[in-house]
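not sure who needs this but someone in the group chat was asking about DUF2851 domain-containing protein from Nonlabens tegetincola so here u go. i didnt clean anything up, its just raw.
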Amino acid sequence: MQEDFIHYLWKFKKLSGIPLTTTDGVDLVIQSLGSHNFESGPDFFNARLKIGNQQWAGNVEMHVKASDWFLHGHDDDPAYDNVILHVVWQHDAEISTRDGIKIPVLEVSRFVPENLVMSYRKLFAHKNNQFINCEQDLPHLNEFKLNLWLEKLFINRLQQKSARIRHYLKQSNNDWEAAFFQLLARSFGTKTNADAFEQLAQSIDQATVRKLARDSFQLESALLGQSGLLDEKKEDRYYELCVKEYAFAKAKYQIQPSLTPMKFFRLRPANFPTVRISQLAMLYHRKPMLFAEVLLAVTKEDIYDLFEVKASKYWMITMFLIRRLMTSLKD
Protein backbone atom coordinates (compact mmCIF):
# COMPACT_ATOMS: atom_id res chain seq x y z
CA MET A 1 0.00 0.00 0.00
CA GLN A 2 1.24 3.46 -0.95
CA GLU A 3 0.24 6.83 0.46
CA ASP A 4 -0.59 7.98 -3.09
CA PHE A 5 -3.54 5.58 -3.10
CA ILE A 6 -5.00 7.31 -0.05
CA HIS A 7 -4.51 10.68 -1.81
CA TYR A 8 -6.34 9.25 -4.81
CA LEU A 9 -9.28 8.03 -2.70
CA TRP A 10 -9.63 11.45 -1.09
CA LYS A 11 -8.96 13.70 -4.09
CA PHE A 12 -11.23 11.87 -6.53
CA LYS A 13 -14.11 11.47 -4.07
CA LYS A 14 -13.97 7.68 -3.88
CA LEU A 15 -15.21 8.00 -0.29
CA SER A 16 -18.23 10.11 -1.26
CA GLY A 17 -21.63 8.62 -0.56
CA ILE A 18 -20.20 6.21 2.03
CA PRO A 19 -21.32 6.60 5.69
CA LEU A 20 -17.96 7.40 7.26
CA THR A 21 -16.99 7.27 10.92
CA THR A 22 -13.79 8.06 12.76
CA THR A 23 -11.95 5.36 14.70
CA ASP A 24 -13.85 6.63 17.76
CA GLY A 25 -17.16 5.83 16.08
CA VAL A 26 -18.12 9.47 15.43
CA ASP A 27 -19.96 10.27 12.17
CA LEU A 28 -17.82 12.07 9.57
CA VAL A 29 -19.09 14.07 6.58
CA ILE A 30 -16.65 15.47 4.00
CA GLN A 31 -18.04 18.84 2.88
CA SER A 32 -14.95 20.11 1.01
CA LEU A 33 -11.84 18.11 0.16
CA GLY A 34 -9.53 21.14 0.28
CA SER A 35 -6.64 21.78 -2.12
CA HIS A 36 -3.90 19.23 -2.73
CA ASN A 37 -0.54 20.42 -1.42
CA PHE A 38 2.49 19.15 -3.37
CA GLU A 39 5.05 20.98 -1.22
CA SER A 40 6.03 20.64 2.43
CA GLY A 41 3.25 20.64 5.03
CA PRO A 42 -0.09 18.81 5.33
CA ASP A 43 -1.34 16.94 2.26
CA PHE A 44 -4.60 18.91 1.80
CA PHE A 45 -5.20 22.52 2.80
CA ASN A 46 -8.46 24.18 3.83
CA ALA A 47 -10.76 21.16 3.97
CA ARG A 48 -14.21 21.45 5.55
CA LEU A 49 -15.60 18.57 7.57
CA LYS A 50 -18.47 17.78 9.89
CA ILE A 51 -17.39 15.48 12.70
CA GLY A 52 -20.33 14.59 14.88
CA ASN A 53 -22.27 17.83 15.33
CA GLN A 54 -19.18 20.04 14.99
CA GLN A 55 -18.10 21.90 11.86
CA TRP A 56 -14.34 21.93 11.22
CA ALA A 57 -12.13 23.85 8.78
CA GLY A 58 -8.45 23.11 8.45
CA ASN A 59 -5.86 20.77 6.98
CA VAL A 60 -5.82 17.00 6.38
CA GLU A 61 -2.76 14.78 6.68
CA MET A 62 -2.47 11.26 5.23
CA HIS A 63 -0.27 8.26 5.99
CA VAL A 64 -0.25 4.53 5.38
CA LYS A 65 0.17 3.95 9.12
CA ALA A 66 -0.92 6.39 11.81
CA SER A 67 2.46 5.93 13.51
CA ASP A 68 4.11 7.54 10.45
CA TRP A 69 3.04 10.82 12.06
CA PHE A 70 5.86 10.39 14.55
CA LEU A 71 8.23 8.82 12.03
CA HIS A 72 7.99 11.96 9.86
CA GLY A 73 8.41 14.32 12.82
CA HIS A 74 4.96 15.94 12.54
CA ASP A 75 4.49 15.78 16.33
CA ASP A 76 7.08 18.57 16.72
CA ASP A 77 6.27 20.61 13.60
CA PRO A 78 4.08 23.75 13.94
CA ALA A 79 2.99 23.36 10.29
CA TYR A 80 0.73 20.52 11.45
CA ASP A 81 -1.00 22.35 14.30
CA ASN A 82 -4.06 23.00 12.12
CA VAL A 83 -4.62 19.38 11.07
CA ILE A 84 -8.26 18.47 11.73
CA LEU A 85 -8.21 14.91 10.39
CA HIS A 86 -5.61 12.16 10.04
CA VAL A 87 -6.50 9.83 7.15
CA VAL A 88 -4.69 6.50 7.34
CA TRP A 89 -4.85 2.99 5.93
CA GLN A 90 -3.90 1.37 9.23
CA HIS A 91 -4.66 2.92 12.60
CA ASP A 92 -1.82 1.69 14.81
CA ALA A 93 -1.26 4.70 17.07
CA GLU A 94 -3.08 7.65 18.62
CA ILE A 95 -1.73 11.03 17.53
CA SER A 96 -2.20 14.58 18.76
CA THR A 97 -1.06 18.15 18.12
CA ARG A 98 1.84 19.77 19.97
CA ASP A 99 -0.73 21.11 22.46
CA GLY A 100 -1.86 17.58 23.26
CA ILE A 101 -5.19 17.83 21.39
CA LYS A 102 -6.20 14.44 19.98
CA ILE A 103 -6.68 14.47 16.20
CA PRO A 104 -9.63 12.47 14.78
CA VAL A 105 -8.61 9.54 12.58
CA LEU A 106 -10.29 8.11 9.49
CA GLU A 107 -9.11 4.55 8.78
CA VAL A 108 -10.01 4.28 5.09
CA SER A 109 -9.27 0.56 4.78
CA ARG A 110 -12.60 -0.07 6.54
CA PHE A 111 -14.55 1.71 3.79
CA VAL A 112 -12.76 0.89 0.51
CA PRO A 113 -14.22 -1.95 -1.63
CA GLU A 114 -11.83 -4.86 -2.18
CA ASN A 115 -12.20 -4.67 -5.98
CA LEU A 116 -10.90 -1.07 -5.95
CA VAL A 117 -7.84 -2.12 -3.95
CA MET A 118 -7.19 -5.02 -6.34
CA SER A 119 -7.48 -2.71 -9.37
CA TYR A 120 -5.02 -0.30 -7.80
CA ARG A 121 -2.49 -3.04 -7.06
CA LYS A 122 -2.85 -4.44 -10.56
CA LEU A 123 -2.37 -1.00 -12.13
CA PHE A 124 0.80 -0.23 -10.18
CA ALA A 125 2.36 -3.68 -10.15
CA HIS A 126 5.92 -3.22 -11.39
CA LYS A 127 6.98 -5.35 -14.35
CA ASN A 128 10.39 -5.02 -15.95
CA ASN A 129 9.11 -5.43 -19.50
CA GLN A 130 6.15 -3.09 -19.09
CA PHE A 131 6.14 0.24 -20.93
CA ILE A 132 3.40 1.90 -18.85
CA ASN A 133 1.20 0.57 -16.06
CA CYS A 134 -1.93 0.21 -18.17
CA GLU A 135 -0.11 -1.28 -21.15
CA GLN A 136 -1.94 -4.61 -20.96
CA ASP A 137 -5.34 -2.90 -20.97
CA LEU A 138 -4.77 -0.66 -24.00
CA PRO A 139 -5.44 -3.33 -26.68
CA HIS A 140 -8.88 -3.93 -25.18
CA LEU A 141 -10.02 -0.33 -25.61
CA ASN A 142 -12.39 0.62 -28.41
CA GLU A 143 -10.16 2.29 -31.03
CA PHE A 144 -12.82 4.78 -32.11
CA LYS A 145 -13.49 5.90 -28.52
CA LEU A 146 -9.76 6.08 -27.77
CA ASN A 147 -9.06 8.31 -30.80
CA LEU A 148 -12.08 10.45 -29.97
CA TRP A 149 -10.84 10.88 -26.39
CA LEU A 150 -7.29 11.76 -27.52
CA GLU A 151 -8.65 14.33 -29.98
CA LYS A 152 -10.78 15.87 -27.25
CA LEU A 153 -7.73 16.11 -24.96
CA PHE A 154 -5.78 17.80 -27.76
CA ILE A 155 -8.55 20.35 -28.39
CA ASN A 156 -8.98 21.07 -24.66
CA ARG A 157 -5.25 21.64 -24.25
CA LEU A 158 -5.15 23.93 -27.28
CA GLN A 159 -8.12 25.92 -25.97
CA GLN A 160 -6.47 26.34 -22.56
CA LYS A 161 -3.24 27.58 -24.12
CA SER A 162 -5.12 29.94 -26.46
CA ALA A 163 -7.12 31.39 -23.58
CA ARG A 164 -3.91 32.06 -21.63
CA ILE A 165 -2.30 33.80 -24.61
CA ARG A 166 -5.42 35.96 -25.17
CA HIS A 167 -5.23 36.92 -21.49
CA TYR A 168 -1.59 37.97 -21.84
CA LEU A 169 -2.35 39.98 -24.99
CA LYS A 170 -5.22 41.78 -23.30
CA GLN A 171 -3.00 42.72 -20.36
CA SER A 172 -0.22 43.99 -22.63
CA ASN A 173 -2.40 45.90 -25.13
CA ASN A 174 -1.72 43.34 -27.87
CA ASP A 175 2.05 43.47 -27.44
CA TRP A 176 3.10 40.03 -28.71
CA GLU A 177 6.64 40.37 -27.36
CA ALA A 178 5.27 41.05 -23.88
CA ALA A 179 2.78 38.18 -24.11
CA PHE A 180 5.54 35.84 -25.27
CA PHE A 181 7.79 36.96 -22.40
CA GLN A 182 5.10 36.10 -19.85
CA LEU A 183 4.36 32.73 -21.42
CA LEU A 184 8.06 31.88 -21.66
CA ALA A 185 8.72 32.99 -18.09
CA ARG A 186 5.96 30.68 -16.88
CA SER A 187 7.66 27.80 -18.69
CA PHE A 188 11.02 28.69 -17.16
CA GLY A 189 9.41 28.38 -13.74
CA THR A 190 8.53 24.72 -14.47
CA LYS A 191 5.58 23.23 -12.62
CA THR A 192 6.75 24.26 -9.15
CA ASN A 193 7.30 27.97 -9.83
CA ALA A 194 5.12 28.54 -12.90
CA ASP A 195 2.77 30.98 -11.14
CA ALA A 196 5.64 32.81 -9.43
CA PHE A 197 7.51 33.29 -12.73
CA GLU A 198 4.32 34.47 -14.43
CA GLN A 199 3.82 37.08 -11.70
CA LEU A 200 7.48 38.07 -12.06
CA ALA A 201 7.09 38.63 -15.80
CA GLN A 202 3.94 40.69 -15.22
CA SER A 203 5.68 42.87 -12.63
CA ILE A 204 8.01 44.45 -15.20
CA ASP A 205 6.91 45.82 -18.58
CA GLN A 206 8.52 44.72 -21.82
CA ALA A 207 10.01 48.13 -22.61
CA THR A 208 11.91 48.04 -19.32
CA VAL A 209 13.06 44.47 -20.02
CA ARG A 210 14.49 45.55 -23.37
CA LYS A 211 16.38 48.46 -21.78
CA LEU A 212 17.77 46.31 -18.98
CA ALA A 213 18.65 43.50 -21.43
CA ARG A 214 21.48 45.62 -22.86
CA ASP A 215 23.45 44.39 -19.85
CA SER A 216 22.79 40.80 -18.72
CA PHE A 217 23.83 41.59 -15.13
CA GLN A 218 21.36 44.49 -14.92
CA LEU A 219 18.50 42.34 -16.16
CA GLU A 220 19.44 39.41 -13.94
CA SER A 221 19.65 41.68 -10.88
CA ALA A 222 16.30 43.28 -11.68
CA LEU A 223 14.56 39.92 -12.11
CA LEU A 224 16.11 38.50 -8.95
CA GLY A 225 15.05 41.59 -7.04
CA GLN A 226 11.53 41.58 -8.47
CA SER A 227 11.15 37.94 -7.41
CA GLY A 228 12.09 38.71 -3.79
CA LEU A 229 15.30 36.67 -3.93
CA LEU A 230 17.43 39.64 -2.88
CA ASP A 231 15.51 40.48 0.30
CA GLU A 232 17.78 38.66 2.74
CA LYS A 233 21.17 39.89 3.91
CA LYS A 234 24.06 37.73 2.71
CA GLU A 235 27.82 38.11 2.87
CA ASP A 236 28.42 37.44 -0.81
CA ARG A 237 30.05 39.95 -3.13
CA TYR A 238 27.96 39.00 -6.16
CA TYR A 239 24.78 39.11 -4.09
CA GLU A 240 25.64 42.57 -2.73
CA LEU A 241 26.27 43.87 -6.27
CA CYS A 242 22.89 42.48 -7.38
CA VAL A 243 21.17 44.26 -4.47
CA LYS A 244 22.75 47.59 -5.44
CA GLU A 245 21.95 47.14 -9.12
CA TYR A 246 18.34 46.25 -8.34
CA ALA A 247 17.93 49.27 -6.05
CA PHE A 248 19.07 51.51 -8.90
CA ALA A 249 16.75 49.84 -11.46
CA LYS A 250 13.81 49.93 -9.07
CA ALA A 251 14.21 53.67 -8.53
CA LYS A 252 14.88 54.46 -12.19
CA TYR A 253 12.04 52.44 -13.72
CA GLN A 254 9.56 52.68 -10.82
CA ILE A 255 8.97 48.92 -10.71
CA GLN A 256 7.26 47.09 -7.85
CA PRO A 257 8.30 43.54 -6.85
CA SER A 258 6.15 40.47 -7.39
CA LEU A 259 4.30 39.16 -4.33
CA THR A 260 4.43 35.44 -5.20
CA PRO A 261 7.38 33.77 -3.42
CA MET A 262 9.73 31.41 -5.24
CA LYS A 263 10.01 27.80 -4.08
CA PHE A 264 13.16 25.70 -3.82
CA PHE A 265 11.69 22.65 -2.09
CA ARG A 266 12.17 19.33 -3.96
CA LEU A 267 13.98 21.00 -6.86
CA ARG A 268 17.27 19.92 -8.40
CA PRO A 269 19.95 22.66 -8.54
CA ALA A 270 19.46 23.10 -12.31
CA ASN A 271 15.80 24.04 -11.67
CA PHE A 272 16.43 26.45 -8.80
CA PRO A 273 14.56 29.72 -9.54
CA THR A 274 17.81 31.67 -9.22
CA VAL A 275 19.36 29.62 -12.02
CA ARG A 276 16.24 29.79 -14.18
CA ILE A 277 16.05 33.56 -13.76
CA SER A 278 19.71 33.86 -14.78
CA GLN A 279 19.04 31.77 -17.90
CA LEU A 280 16.04 33.95 -18.77
CA ALA A 281 18.14 37.10 -18.36
CA MET A 282 20.94 35.72 -20.53
CA LEU A 283 18.43 34.68 -23.19
CA TYR A 284 16.89 38.17 -23.45
CA HIS A 285 20.32 39.77 -23.31
CA ARG A 286 21.17 37.82 -26.48
CA LYS A 287 17.75 38.18 -28.12
CA PRO A 288 15.77 41.15 -26.71
CA MET A 289 13.18 40.73 -29.52
CA LEU A 290 12.89 37.00 -29.04
CA PHE A 291 9.36 36.56 -30.37
CA ALA A 292 10.35 38.17 -33.68
CA GLU A 293 13.31 35.80 -33.86
CA VAL A 294 11.01 32.82 -33.28
CA LEU A 295 8.74 33.94 -36.13
CA LEU A 296 11.74 34.08 -38.46
CA ALA A 297 12.88 30.58 -37.56
CA VAL A 298 12.49 28.12 -40.45
CA THR A 299 13.46 24.75 -38.97
CA LYS A 300 13.19 23.05 -35.61
CA GLU A 301 16.95 23.35 -35.27
CA ASP A 302 16.65 27.14 -35.62
CA ILE A 303 14.35 27.15 -32.59
CA TYR A 304 16.76 25.00 -30.63
CA ASP A 305 19.61 27.38 -31.46
CA LEU A 306 17.62 30.36 -30.19
CA PHE A 307 17.08 28.75 -26.81
CA GLU A 308 20.60 27.37 -26.40
CA VAL A 309 21.49 29.41 -23.34
CA LYS A 310 23.36 28.99 -20.06
CA ALA A 311 23.11 30.78 -16.75
CA SER A 312 25.66 33.46 -15.88
CA LYS A 313 29.12 32.33 -14.75
CA TYR A 314 28.32 32.89 -11.06
CA TRP A 315 25.40 30.45 -11.13
CA MET A 316 27.23 27.93 -13.29
CA ILE A 317 30.02 27.77 -10.72
CA THR A 318 27.49 27.60 -7.88
CA MET A 319 25.69 24.65 -9.49
CA PHE A 320 29.00 22.88 -10.03
CA LEU A 321 29.91 23.26 -6.36
CA ILE A 322 26.46 22.09 -5.23
CA ARG A 323 26.73 18.98 -7.41
CA ARG A 324 30.16 18.19 -6.01
CA LEU A 325 28.85 18.60 -2.47
CA MET A 326 25.85 16.34 -3.15
CA THR A 327 28.12 13.71 -4.72
CA SER A 328 30.47 13.76 -1.74
CA LEU A 329 27.55 13.38 0.68
CA LYS A 330 26.29 10.35 -1.23
CA ASP A 331 29.75 8.78 -1.15
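also The chain has a mean pLDDT of 90. if thats useful
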